[in-house]
Amino acid sequence: MTDSPRPNGNRRTPSPPVSSPGTGAPPADAPRSGVPGSGKRRDAFFDNAKYLAIVLVAVGHFWEPIKDDSRFMEAAYTVVYAFHMPAFIVISGFFSRSFDMRPDRLGRLVTGVAVPYIVFETAYPLFKRVVDDDPGQEVSLLDPWYLTWFLCALFVWRLTTPIWKAVRHPLPLALGLAMLASVSPRIGDDLDLQRVLQFLPYFVLGLCLRPEHFHLVRRRSVRFLAVPVFVSALALAWWAEPRMTTGWLYHRDSAQELGAPWWAGPVMVLVLFGCSLLLTACFFAWVPGRHMWFTALGAGTLYGYLLHGFVVKAGDYRGWFDASVPHGPVGAVAVTVFAAVLVTFLCSGPVQRVFRCVMEPRMEWAFRRDAAGPARARGRGQEERAAREAGGTRKTREGREAPEQVSA
């Protein structure tokens, strides 16, 4: 859960996401509910989607230093970057539908998003100081560094969720903001607002989706059509590679900063939105809905997302990618396999237990006691029992089928 390097080290900021841990969600190995997002049990489909997407994120980051020697790898890199981040953000929006300003949900937003952001926004520059022998590297909580931009964006998106739930046409409004951002070079780098605004439509789209929409893309006919779509996308990316800069895919810069006329910004926002949604739908079509060996890893994708960046950066600082071996076909395959195995390990239970103190701190001491919490818990319990007895789908008090989760 992404980007090409910038001259000052801290702007090489790939995409994430990474899935964040479920906050208050049931164990990842709980049986699936049968309907995406229904009930309290984790749905295998979404955990599978998050795991497969985080593997693509890690592979893309390891491809970045070695892709310049192969036009095919450039094309594959472009296709992957066109949809893996939008897929994460759509899932994040889908599981944010029940978010409001309730104290317990704000507390989970702080512990599950803000605290990891602060920890890793500090850890990455310090890591560069030590490993790259760069004592001048500064720590700044206002300029997201490398992978941490997604946590910053998710925090902002979550806080604005009540607004998007209140307005009449949220998606067109979000697209309008993204188009305006693409022609506004003066937004600057603070909190990576350029990327926050340009990726916003995908989050708002997730807020607008319902479980039945995911059932539509998982039909057999869509699964068959996804194959020629991906092949066509790869061919198009191969053709466009010498003609288009991949900077458009990062949604990090305005049109003027990419050396294009201002009107190209809104056009590219709309074109990429359509292409990304098509590829995201094809990706979801091939995600298995049943319990797989990697399903439980879907609950730990935030761990894999944030931690694998240290390995990528270590390789960059120490010149591991400068050798000739990774730049050949065999080396590229080896790098791909290594990236997939590494991020799989980093999503595993033992790693989660070690780093849970900074990824999912409890921090009851930091918040006032919510007097209405026990009453809400009893009300939810009564609703669940009534739903089980009626054999129907439990719904929350907000009328949403999906429980709130922090997804990366």
From TrEMBL:
InterPro entries: Acyl_transf_3_dom (IPR002656), Nod_factor_acetyltransferase (IPR052734). Keywords: Membrane, Transmembrane, Transmembrane helix. Residues 380-408 have a biased composition (Basic and acidic residues). This is Acyltransferase 3 domain-containing protein. Residues 1-39, 371-408 are annotated as: Disordered. It holds the Pfam family Acyl_transf_3. The keyword Ribonucleoprotein does not apply. The lineage of its organism: Bacteria, Bacillati, Actinomycetota, Actinomycetes, Kitasatosporales. The chain crosses the membrane at residues 45-63, 75-94, 106-126, 146-164, 222-240, 260-286, 293-312, 332-355. The keyword Transmembrane applies. Residues 1-12 have a biased composition (Polar residues). Residues 44-346 form the Acyltransferase domain.
